[in-house]
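Extended Data, panel c. Modelled sequence:
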Amino acid sequence: MSVERLIAEAGIVRTLHRYGHAIDAGDEATWVDLFTPEGQFQVRGPQGGYTISGRDELAAFASRHSRRPEAFHQHVVTQPVIEVEGDRARCVSRFFVIVMDGDRPAVRTFGTYRDELERGEDGEWRFVVRRPEIDAAALGLPPLANARGSAG
């Protein structure tokens, strides 16, 4: 394995981790910047799905997402398998989201991320497409998406 590939993989893992940190903290600008200008967020799950395209729609989504201090949660990503081809990459990883259920933590949802990424001129890896495929979600817990206002 080349040093260049290891550097690319490290940059991609950094993007995966920055995603969780940004959305959990309500850092909308950082979260949106993790996507290319035409980037897509394609959520799929047992109850259907939706697609958000472009930075304006991504920013609107992020503004409605739950965050600290009114909602404590942690997006956790694990087991990334990364394929790099020049300035493009694909990554499959697992995720789960921990939330507070009264006075105890609980797994809110879990599934698989299927990502397509691109390295920008600034050297940062960004999502061209991020596809969270939700395998399961706990019933009766507060929503994450659209938790801070009406759905767009």
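Residues 3-137 form a domain with the Nuclear Transport Factor 2; Chain: A, fold (CATH 3.10.450.50). This feature is highlighted in the accompanying rendering.
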